Fold these 3 entries.
Entry 1:
Amino acid sequence: MFNKILVPIDGSKLAECTFGHLEEIASGCKVKEIILLTVLEVIAPPFMEVETQYQIDEMIRLQESDEKKTREKAENYLSGAVNYLKTQGVTARSVLIKTDVMQSTPEVILNYAEKNNVDLIIISTHGRSGISRWAFGSVADRLVRASITPVLTVTPKGCRVVATAALP
């Protein structure tokens, strides 16, 4: 049923909570390809007044240095995730995509899934609702609402934000 599964991960422990579900589905469905995807968002340099070409060059150098460190950290994380899944009997490969200024993370994930004929997207979620979901946004929520590919959302036990009313 599922030949290709996409698992967006962002370096958080929460994102890795999907791995148990992934292992079960991969085994049960004899999945042929699993892709771990990390999206690097473009970080706009801080707006500041510059007076010399040296200052401009220095800003560019710092920006490039920061981007290189972020990319290396993401590559190491993905490599570790692939190796962990391998110890669990699951073969996966990793993909790292850098957004451009006009793209959001959900758009990158959806475009990748569509262009690569992904059969299922598995993503973790905090389980926020109401005002907190609005305030913090949700990549998972945007995927569920916009994807033509089935999306399995996983809210790990103990991670769901539960609203409680004060009792009189």
Entry 2:
Amino acid sequence: MLERIKTLLGIEDTLQDDVLNIIIENVSAHLKALLGKDVPSELEFIVTEISIRRYNRIGTEGMKSESVEGHNITFYDLKDEFVPYESIIAAHKDPPEKPGRGRVMFI
């Protein structure tokens, strides 16, 4: 995944590997928490896309939008980064366990 992200970003050296690996780990952990299980290989594209967004935001983490000479950029809040993928994530969540009937034993 690291090499694919570096290719998409046009990075040809290893200077940013540590930063990218931390971003990948954070995004993967966030997605794992949303899924309630390990990230399946078919959802790794979400980790890739969001990791690229987070890498490109380095230095502008606190900004919501930026405007320079007529060029406007609006960023997702970190809490909203997974919103475009909600239906995909929901389809991959394990169904909740059905509460069953329990037993009570008296000794």
Entry 3:
Amino acid sequence: MPRYDVGEVVLVYFPYKNHNGEIQVKTRPGLIYQLDGDRERVIIQITTTNRSDKLPGKWIPKASEIGKKMELLSDSFINVGTLFV
């Protein structure tokens, strides 16, 4: 298993419910938020849809200092309301 550090952006499979209520997965970027030993990871969802009016999180323009450090490809919303372990 590759080693990652807190703060790195990685591609992961995120679950979601489709219009029929079935759980499916999409490959999406995620922010490594916490590492618990060798096996546990807490990942924060990143999306290009600004949901700051509905969900807790932060909108980050890719041209900002933080966006450049994260090497974002697009302006992105860091969705801290949706964590995955």
